[in-house]
């Protein structure tokens, strides 16, 4: 990994893994365009030259570099002091202390660790995302009129919200598209769909299964461009157009639109500009059919649970498909309290509804352990489980998240029970193996 301390702070991040061809996603700075170098100049605060170069690579990717530069295939070990320097530059001081405690508990040399931590204490965080990379030619790209798109919407007992979403589709500037709705509602209301002026196909699916619904619609789609959408979302009239423009502009395989939630965590700063995406949200993403043909459909081990879209995005990333985070294809995610996965017992991957239920939801550990191994999965649990004690609505409140971490210490026996239960259920999933159906070309 570029800087090894990222394994503590981002243990299950897409970019922590080498792709299947042995390459990383991090560009080699000497191959970057000269116009970009003034934004990622070497920082003299690092002790080693190699750390300065690695930092330039990390900055370029975080600020939105998308291009043909060669990437690293291996990374050299850096001095411990440079590792502390790096996390002090880009993470809150509380996380720096967190890393120090983990290192000490892992029986690292306490003298070297504490000395490096102290020697870097005067380094302040830098606002590195204030100057992202811009793409001035974006507005000059012609409208891709001829390309046909299939919009795929699974729905479950949300006709009120689905109506608004379909009305948004009626207003789209790009009109060459079909809509496939996979309706799992009870009671099923076929007459509901007669009110829309859309090329609309409705599939009534009796089994309540989100990933089955999406897989079925993908197989039945009549286009090579598949736009996945949630039934509790609102979009602007240029939504489809901007997804298509993104694929063309970057010669990408996936356009991941940003999702702004009415409740939950703060909107990340990197949602404001184009970048190589480190996530995939099936409520707002345009994917070429060729991606599914190469890596298969969604893994049904995630049925009625969470992170099936994250697993698919990671699979696509590892295979080398280019996924762009697209700030111009946003959606408002209403996150309504009924219907959808809410009725299947799941709202948040780390927040079970019942005290004796597994924490996190087993599919989360199934994903982490499958791709990152047991050690990284444990690092992820240490970072994410304590703050998850607080309800989802408090994710924007940092004080409440800290309180949740403290409460987790008081509730340690219960939390440990939840985690071990999740680990056991994830082990069963791993033993069963993936449930990924191939898509014929």
From TrEMBL:
User: Which segments constitute the Glycosyltransferase 2-like domain?
Assistant: 150-267
Membrane-crossing residue ranges in chain numbering: 399-420
InterPro entries found in the cross-reference section: Glyco_trans_2-like, Glycosyltransf_2, Nucleotide-diphossugar_trans
Kindly give the Pfam families that the UniProt entry links to this protein.
Answer: Glycos_transf_2
One of the record's GO molecular function terms: transferase activity
Keywords, A to Z, come to:
Membrane, Transferase, Transmembrane, Transmembrane helix
Domain of life of the source:
Bacteria
**What PANTHER family does its record include?**
GLYCOSYLTRANSFERASE (PTHR43685), SLR2126 PROTEIN (PTHR43685:SF3)
Q: What protein name is recorded for this chain?
A: Glycosyl transferase family 2
Source organism of this protein record:
Marixanthomonas spongiae
């Amino acid at each position: 990994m570029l800087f090894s301390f990222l394994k503590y702070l981002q243990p299950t991040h897409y970019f922590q893994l080498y792709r299947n061809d042995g390459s990383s996603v991090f560009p080699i700075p000497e191959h970057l365009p000269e116009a970009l170098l003034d934004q990622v100049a070497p920082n003299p605060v690092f002790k080693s030259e190699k750390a300065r170069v690695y930092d330039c690579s990390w900055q370029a990717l975080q600020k939105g570099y998308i291009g043909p530069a060669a990437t690293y295939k291996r990374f050299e070990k850096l001095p411990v002091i440079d590792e502390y320097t790096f996390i002090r530059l880009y993470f809150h001081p509380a996380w720096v202390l967190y890393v120090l405690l983990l290192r000490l508990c892992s029986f690292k040399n306490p003298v070297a660790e504490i000395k490096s931590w102290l020697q870097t204490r005067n380094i302040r965080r830098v606002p590195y995302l204030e100057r992202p990379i811009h793409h001035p030619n974006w507005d000059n790209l012609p409208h891709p009129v001829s390309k046909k798109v299939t919009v795929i919407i699974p729905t479950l007992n949300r006709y009120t919200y689905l109506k608004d979403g379909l009305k948004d589709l009626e207003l789209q500037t790009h009109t060459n598209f079909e809509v496939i709705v996979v309706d799992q509602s009870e009671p099923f209301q076929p007459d509901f769909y007669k009110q829309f002026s859309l090329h609309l196909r409705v599939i009534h699916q009796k089994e309540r299964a989100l990933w089955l619904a999406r897989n079925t619609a993908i197989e039945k789609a009549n286009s090579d461009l598949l736009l996945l959408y949630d039934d509790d979302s609102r979009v602007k009239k240029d939504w489809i157009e901007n997804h298509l423009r993104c694929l063309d502009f970057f010669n990408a395989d996936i356009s991941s639109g940003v999702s702004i939630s009415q409740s939950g965590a703060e909107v990340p700063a990197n949602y404001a500009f184009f970048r190589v995406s480190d996530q995939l949200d099936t409520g707002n993403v345009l994917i070429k059919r060729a991606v599914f043909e190469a890596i298969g459909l969604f893994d049904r081990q995630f049925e009625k649970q969470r992170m099936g879209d994250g697993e698919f995005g990671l699979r696509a990333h590892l295979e080398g498909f280019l996924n762009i985070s697209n700030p111009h294809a946003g959606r408002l995610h209403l996150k309504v309290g009924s219907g959808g996965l809410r009725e299947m017992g799941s709202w948040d991957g780390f927040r079970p509804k019942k005290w004796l239920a597994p924490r996190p939801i087993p599919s989360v550990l199934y994903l982490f352990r499958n791709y990152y191994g047991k050690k990284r999965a444990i690092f992820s649990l240490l970072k994410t489980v304590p703050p998850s004690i607080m309800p989802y609505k408090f994710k924007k409140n940092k004080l409440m998240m800290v309180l949740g971490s403290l409460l987790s210490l008081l509730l340690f026996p219960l939390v440990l029970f939840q985690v071990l239960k999740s680990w056991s259920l994830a082990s069963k999933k791993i033993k069963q193996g993936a449930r990924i159906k191939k898509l014929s070309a």
